[in-house]
Amino acid sequence: MSLRATASAPEYWSEDAVALCSDLIRLDGQLGSSDERAGAEYVATLLDGLGIESELVESAPRRSSLVARVAGANPELDPLLIHMHLDVVPADASEWSVHPLSGEVTDDFVWGRGAVDMKNMAASVLTVLKHRVSTGRLPRRPLVLAFLADEENAGVLGAEWLVRERPDLFEGCRTAIGEGGGWSLWTSPEQRIYPVHNAEKGWAAIQVTAHGAPGHASRINDQNPIRVLAEAIGRLTSDRFPVHLTEGVESLLRVACDVHGLSFDPERPEEALPLLGFDATQIRSGLQHTAHPTRTSAGYQSNVVPSVATAELDCRYLPGRWEEFEAELHAALGDQVEVEVLARTLGLTPGRRNAENGVWSAASTALQAEDPTALVAPFMTSGGTDATHLERLGIECFGFSPVLLPPDLDFWALFHGVDERIPSQSLRFASRVLDRFLDSY
User: Taken in order 365, 371, 377, 380, is the CA torsion positive or negative?
Assistant: First the structure.
C-alpha cells in the first residue's frame, strides 16, 4: 500500500528512533516467559497510522510475526525484504544495573533486553518510515517488512514456519537485509570498517549422553557417568578444532591489513586479529568450528551415583562443512559417550549474484554520507540469523544493521549479555543511513 503523506517531519526526525526503541524494549518478548504478540500489535498499530497495511500471522497461539508491504517509486524493481525479530533471550533482572524491560534512557544509552538484538533495527526502520510518510517520499523500490517471531530459538515458529507455510508473504523478494552486520569496527582513530555479513555459520543442538552403573556413592566407581561426561565435554577446547580460513573471514582480515599497510598471511590468519580490537574475539570464532556445553542434567540424590548424565551442546560449524565438523567433534568427545543431533540449520553461503548485488555500493554510499571514513567489507558471522531460512526461497541475504559505536564499547559482549544497551547516537545514525540506503538500492 502507498505511504500516506502527513505533516512535515521534525527537523531532528531521527530522534524518534530512541523513543521507539525504548517502547519496543518495554514490550516483553522473552522466550520461555512471554511471546511476540504485544510487539507485533504495537508495530501493526504504528504502521496502520502511517497508512501501511500489515498481516499478523501466528504459527502457534500468540507466537506472532507481522509482514507488511510498502510501495516503491519504481514498482518494477524487485522488493527489498527487511527482516527483524521481535523476540529476545531471557534476562535475570537481579544481574542488571537497570530492569531489563525498562527501556531506560540514561547517559545517552537506551538500556534493556533487545537494545542490540534486535529491537534497535526495528526502531530505526520504523523511524525511517515515519520520516518518509511525513515528507511524502517513497523508497526507490518496494519493501517487504518482516517482524518475526522465535529467531532466538532458530526461527522454528517464525522464519522457518513462514518459509514453509506462507512463502507468498515474500513473493518477488530476491534480496534481504537484516541483523548481523553493519556495525563500526574501529581499526584506527581515523578509519572505520563496517562489516556486512553475507555468510554465517550453521547451528546445531547436540545432546551428549554417558551411561554407567548406578550405585552407592561411597564405592569406587570409575564408570560414574557424570565423570565420563565431564571428561568428554572438557575436551571441547578451542585447540580441538583446527583453523579453517573461509572467504568471508579472509576478506575482512585483508581489508584490516590493507588499512594498516600490512600484508595478510593466509597461513596464519590469527596474526591479523589484533588489528580488530574488541571485535577480534568475535571474528576469531569464524575461523573454526565451535561446540559449547550450555546445559547439563544428571542425578537425583546426593549419595547415589546415577545411571545417566547428559549435556546439550550449542555447536556452530562453518557453512558447507558439516561432515568435517562431525569428525572433529567425535574425535574430541571420544567413544565413551553417545551423540545425538537434536536440531540443525545449514548456515548461509554467498549466493551466485552476491558480488554484483547492488547492496554493496548502496551500503557504501549511505554509510560514507554519514561517516566519510567508512569502508564496507564482507564477512561471515559466527552467529545465526533468520537468513538461513529465507535463503531457501532464493533470497540473497545480507547483514546490514548500520550503527556507529564509541571506540571503547565492546559491542558483541552486549549480545545476550547483562546490561545490554545501545548508544542513542547509534540509533539516530542507523536511521539516517537506512534512509539513504533506501534511496540508493
Answer: negative
Q: What CATH code is carried by the domain that includes residue 165?
A: 3.40.630.10
| Three cell numbers, residue 93 | 533482572
What is the Cα–Cα distance from 47 to 210, expressed in whole angstroms?
52
Average pLDDT of the residues of the chain: 94
Q: What is the pLDDT of residues 240-280, one digit of tens each?
A: 899 999 988 999 999 999 999 999 999 999 999 999 988 99
- Show the cell assigned to 223: 564408570
Residue 85's contacts (CB-CB under 8 Å, 6 or more residues apart) are: 118, 147, 148, 149, 150, 151, 152, 158, 179, 386
Numbers of helices and strands, H then E, in the chain: 11, 18
pTM beyond 0.85: the answer is yes
Q: Kindly state whether residue 91 falls inside one of the protein's structural domains.
A: yes
Q: Do 133 and 71 sit in the same domain of this protein?
A: yes
Residue type, 256: A
Q: Which amino acid is residue 199, in one-letter code?
A: A
Q: Are residues 176 and 53 both part of a single domain?
A: yes
Taking a C-beta distance cutoff of 8 angstroms, is the pair 139, 146 a contact? no
Q: Do residues 170 and 297 share a domain?
A: no
CB 353 within 8 A of CB 324: no
pLDDT in tens, 27-70: 999 999 999 999 999 999 999 999 999 999 999 999 999 999 99
User: What value does the mean pLDDT take over residues 173-201?
Assistant: 93
Contact assessment for residue 249 and residue 287, using Cβ atoms and an 8 Å cutoff:
yes
Query: What single DSSP character describes residue 403?
Result: B
Q: Do the beta carbons of residue 124 and residue 419 sit within 8 Å?
A: no
Mean pLDDT to the nearest integer, 176-199: 92
Q: What three-state secondary structure class fits 350? A: coil
> What 3-state class would DSSP assign to 110?
strand
In a domain, residue 25? The reply is: yes
Bond into 84 cis (ω within 30): no
User: DSSP characters for 59-102?
Assistant: EETTEEEEEEEE--SSTTSPPEEEEEE--B----GGGSSS-TTS
Strands (E), 212-299: 215-216, 290-298
The contacts of residue 49 (CB under 8 Å, 6+ apart) are: none
